[in-house]
Amino acid sequence: MKKLIGIILSVLTLFGFIFAKDITMSGSTTVFPIAQLAAEKFMDKNPDINISVRGGGSGVGISDLILGRVDIGDASRRIKNKEIKKAKENGINVFEIPVANDGIAIVVNPSNGVNDLTVEQVKKIFMGEINNWKQLGGPSMPIVVISRDVSSGTFDTFKELVLEGGKVRDDALLLASNNAVASTVSETPGAIGYVGLAFVSEKIKALAIDGVIPSENSVKDKSYKISRKLYMYTNGSPKGEIKSFIDFILSKEGQEIVKQVGYLPIN
Amino acid sequence: MKKVKFFSLFSLLLIVIFTNLYSVETKFSAEFWSRYTADFSENQLVKSYFSLERGYIGLQPTFTDKIKGRFTIDLFSSDKFEDGAGIKLKYAYVDFKMPVNDMSLQAGLIKTYFGTIYDWNYATIEKSFDDKEKIVSSADYGLSMNGLIPSGFGEYALSIYNGEGYSKTGSDIDGNPALSLNLRIIPIVGITLGGSVLYENHSLIVKADSSLTDTVRLCYSGMGRISFGLIDIWGLYVAKNKDQETGAGFMIMPVLKLSKIANFIDMEIVGRYDMFDKNIDSAELNDSHNRIMAGFNWNILKDSKSGNPVIFLQTDWERTSYEDTTKAYVDNLSLQLRYLFSGKIK
Predict the structure, then answer these.
(1) Is the same domain home to A219 and A112?
(2) Do the bridges between strand B245-257 and strand B231-242 make them parallel or antiparallel, or are there none, so unpaired?
(3) How many beta carbons lie within 10 A of that of residue B58, not counting itself?
């Protein structure tokens, strides 16, 4: 009898291992710091739940959710109509959860004397109509334009809010992450780029846009124009461990994490 | 043939140079299908061979946020081909975003938006049913206005093609255009319903030596898909009316996604049943056939960043039986390794 109970327990343990429901998430590199730190804190409180967090970009996160590869898709842009269609075809009922606010900071090398630009000037720089800092009251120095690759959610938002659908100049350097843009701008005197607010450091200088410096207050009161929401997407309204995790992110403690990594609380 | 191959490779080189000069971003992709096939007739092995069944090399340049392109060539190699290997241009089109939301115009060598042929992802090694039964070709020269129904409720395509397919060449090409309409709707999450019609009037341009007996070619299809959790079932009905014959048939394909049970088992078990009658109006001809397929797909390796499959193993057993009892049934056993690479050139 003891042997039988032993076998049953072993089988149940094996099945428990195979079917244990961990939380998996992937997506936006902008949302990644929130997801990672929140996951660490949440796992500290709930040691029986394992959360794996992967980056890859907003497109990857949404695609992973659509294909059922992850429980949560992180995105720094809203899901597109064609992605909703694909999700519905695959039996995935996309549920949107805004988790943070973010401003996209226009950044230059700290040695650059220019401190303030208008949205129109930024647009002209990125589209190639303004090519030298001298045209903006700065030193005579060619402008090196650094942008994100077109699959990035940050690029999508920048394109919508600044370029208004226009094309980034052909010789722009396209980089794959916020960190890569920040690093290149910090090492290139004539460079201009754009990063999520959380990626601004003392190594780069965030410019005031239309006279407004990107900050918690200016994004919150919407006076800073280049801002957006950050999202997590799930299959249907979250349930079980996923609901607990999302509730944690939206809680006071979770929104403190949002602030800690440089973004702004959703409410 | 050598001239054609040289021309294709030269064209590809021009495309690479051109897209690099004028694009904002250019993605490339390569996908190779290495296949082993064993053919049996009444359980006797009659043929066994290895082949590079497909070698898709593709470029997807983005010229502006409103203009994109897609260029794909197909390299294939096997003893079964006369020259041992071949090269074909599969897609070459430019996609213009329209001022209306989620609508675009494609022009060039484009996909044929009909039935399941345009989004067939080869859950079985075998081609889509509408492709296999030669209802339509998978790509053709033409124009297509494609769009999405708001809130993800479906898609539509209104197209005009040559109607002859991308691989047909020579003097027997019919010069009449074919019109096509495709509609897919998703009334509730997990259920897709669709229908397509392709109409070609052969009487507009008639060659002196034409052997056509009909003035109209009419193809139509109805599809349904149910996808819930680990179950994904595809169904397709197709019919083709040409040369005073109406052929019709259906396919049903259930897919069991084991990854939905446990993340680390990234496999699918697939079954498929096809039935096609070449002439449904004549019961005496004994010209129908059916296929039964069973296999599994295994994502051996995924890209660590995107999570997309990089190496993919497929096996497929297929039996084709004929209504004509003088014809023996045929079995095919296939084992295929698909490997994919993608990235950015610019």
Answers:
(1) yes
(2) antiparallel
(3) 17
Are residues A178 and A109 part of one domain?
Answer: yes
> Quick check: B306 and A168 CB within 8 A?
no
DSSP B266: -
Please list the rounded mean pLDDT of every run of 10 residues in chain B (346 residues): 62 70 81 94 90 91 87 82 78 92 94 96 94 93 96 96 78 81 97 96 72 79 95 97 88 92 83 94 83 95 74 95 91 95 80
Q: What ipTM was estimated for this complex?
A: 0.86
Q: Please tell me the distance in Å from A132's CA to the nearest CA on chain B.
A: 21
Strands B330-344, B178-188: parallel, antiparallel or unpaired by DSSP?
unpaired
Whole-number Å distance between alpha carbons of B137 and B108: 15
- For residue B261, list chain A residues with Cβ-Cβ distance below 8 A: 18-19
**What's this model's pTM, rounded to 2 decimal places?**
0.82
- Identify the CATH number of the domain in which residue A107 sits: 3.40.190.10
**Model pLDDT for residues B223-271, shown as the tens digit of each residue:** 999 999 899 999 999 999 987 789 999 999 999 998 877 767 789 999 9
Are A127 and A239 within one domain? no
Q: Contact, B216 vs B202, CB < 8 A?
A: yes
Region A140-159: mean pLDDT is 86
B189 contacts on A by Cβ (under 8 Å): 87-88, 91-93
Structural domain that includes position A151 = 103-227
For B274-314, the pLDDT digits (tens) are 999 988 887 777 889 999 999 999 988 877 666 677 899 99
What is the chain B residue with the closest CA to A236? B189
Residues A185 and A134 in one domain: yes
One domain for residues A184 and A170: yes
Inter-chain touch A150–B24, beta carbons under 8 Å: yes
CB contact A51 to B (< 8 Å): no
B150: closest CA of chain A, how far (Å): 7
A133 and A61 assigned to the same domain: no
CB of A54 less than 8 A from some CB of B: yes
Q: Is residue A267 included in any domain, yes or no?
A: no
Say if residue A74 is in the same domain as residue A144. Answer: no
B24 with A170: Cβ contact below 8 A: yes
Q: Dihedral sign for Cα B290, B233, B312, A19, please.
A: negative
Q: Report how far residue A212's alpha carbon sits from residue A124's, in angstroms, rounded to the nearest whole number.
A: 19
